[in-house]
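To whoever picks this up:

The nightly regression suite flagged Pimeloyl-ACP methyl ester carboxylesterase as changed. Nothing in the input moved, so I suspect the structure step. Input below, exactly as stored in the fixture:
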Amino acid sequence: MRLLSFQILACLGLLFLPSVLVAQSTGVDYPYPVQFLSLNMESKPVRMAYMDVRPAQPNGKTVLLLHGKNFNGYYWQTVIRWLTANGYRAIVPDQVGWGKSSHPDIHYSFHRLAANTRHLLDTLGIQKVTVLAHSMGGMLGTRFTLMYPEIVEKLVLENPIGLEDYKTFVPYQTIEQQFQKEKSATFESYQQYQKSYYPVWKPEYDDLVQVQASDLKSPDFNAIAWSNAVTYLMIYEQPVCYEFNRLKTPTLLIIGQEDRTVVGKNLLSKTEQARHGLYPELGRQTVKQLQSGKLIELDGVGHIPHIQAPERFLKALGDFLK
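Regenerated output under the current build:
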């Protein structure tokens, strides 16, 4: 453990054994078999979980799916089913720090997560992919494409966060403050936050709340909460919005028009909340920065189009993949 983290955790009375520092969340049954890639990060052995789902009649194309901050590979199941039915191989990692992957105490960065993901593809012998990235995955997908443009044939950003620089208007929170917030989470707090993803809440959306809340029952929840806090700061401190104009890869923006997601929104006044997270405006601004961009606007849809409006989402995806 790094010295700074050790001092912080000592002050909070939350020292972990090394095995806990690379804890894994295992309380959810994923829709397809999960495999593991061994990695070494900052002298810590960790495992990266992933699903590799192959079609019965392959078309030779592979899609890499990158999950959001409050999610993991589980929520891609409908998209995976559609992709494989249409001949695409689906590679669906849980990034290190999420889901069934290890949750080590390390310095998290989009660069390192991208490097891990490239290593996974190299290990599987995959030389070309289309990247489909949602929410925080959009920030990672952008970084991945900027780092490895030679392997990304197309990029799809589904309601990505990071279309604006949060640190320019959201008050700073220390890692200790964010950790205490993560530690105090409940099923109800997760549910309340996820309700903001949809214009109208439906009971079936509780499935994703149950998946997120499964970590609350983990004996390693302290380590998971610490990873959650550190990765919040990763989003806050590592914007990608200034680099969209560097993307040469053909890029599709799919934007649910009712989305108002802002990382750290609860720290803003009502007046400030109304000024930010305006996805219709952000989508139009962003597509203008792309060298080869297309924008699909989904009316009446919130933060997770592939869950709320799968038919419209998959229609837009399919047209772009052709």
